[in-house]
Amino acid sequence: MQTGNGMRWPFAMPQDILGIRFALNVAIATAIVWFSLAHIADTNPIWAIASMVAASDPQVTEAARMFRSRLTNVLVGGVVGLLFLVVGGPAEWMLPFALAVTVLLSSYVIHIQTMWRQAPITAAIVIAAGVSSHSKLGGIESGLHKVAEVVFGCVVGLVVSWAMSRIWPIRRPADLSGP
Questions:
Q1: Which residues of 6-37 are buried (b: 16+ CB within 10 A; e: fewer)?
Q2: Do residues 37 and 152 touch, judged by C-beta distance below 8 A?
Q3: Helices (H) and strands (E) in the chain, counts
Q4: What is the pLDDT averaged over residues 46-71?
């Protein structure tokens, strides 16, 4: 938007309002995740909220792609973390090896580069849960709980992105260039 003297107003509404839609998606999804986990499940929702933000997008096709990528890598990291925890117990020295194995699996077997860092992060969450509780069983329980929170956050992010695309459809960036 330009002022009368031809200068551009710094806070003009952009033609492309993806940022505004993304902010609304994140606000709605955060409220859902926070209420669900803090009040119903009585747990700290920070992992779920971080996952929700990572899996959200104002473009539902991009949100679905991020969801699939994140979910795949969360499952890889969760499985590797649980295997290391079950086989080796809650030992600090296993963390670097488990993360290295997770990165190699994610990079060379899974081949989903988007969100590939999520796999070792999830493995670290699972193993750290065991190390901090000094218990294999406690670590497994806590690790599975954290992985479930991450998956829940991803699902909420995708569902809110999908719902908002139905309630408030917006044009794709390619459609904004106009004639």
A1: eeeeeeeeeebbbeebbebbbebbbebbeebb
A2: yes
A3: 6, 0
A4: 87
Distance CA 171, CA 14 (A): 13
167 beta partners: none
Q: Give dist(CA 50, CA 110) in Å, integer.
A: 23
Rounded mean pLDDT, 145-156: 90
146 neighbors 47 (Cβ within 8 angstroms): yes
Give how far Cα 70 sits from Cα of 17, 54, 133, 164, Å. Answer: 25, 8, 26, 21
CB 81 within 8 A of CB 124: yes
pLDDT at res. 143: 81
Looking at residue 10, its pLDDT comes to: 53
Task: For residue range 13-45, list pLDDT tens digits in order.
Answer: 455 677 888 899 999 999 999 999 888 877 888
Longest dimension (CA), the chain: 72
Segment 143-147 mean pLDDT = 85
Cα 41 from chain centroid (whole Å): 19
Sequence-ordered list of residues with C-beta below 8 angstroms from that of 61, at least 6 positions apart, any chain: none
Query: How far, in whole angstroms, is CA 159 from its chain's centroid?
Result: 13
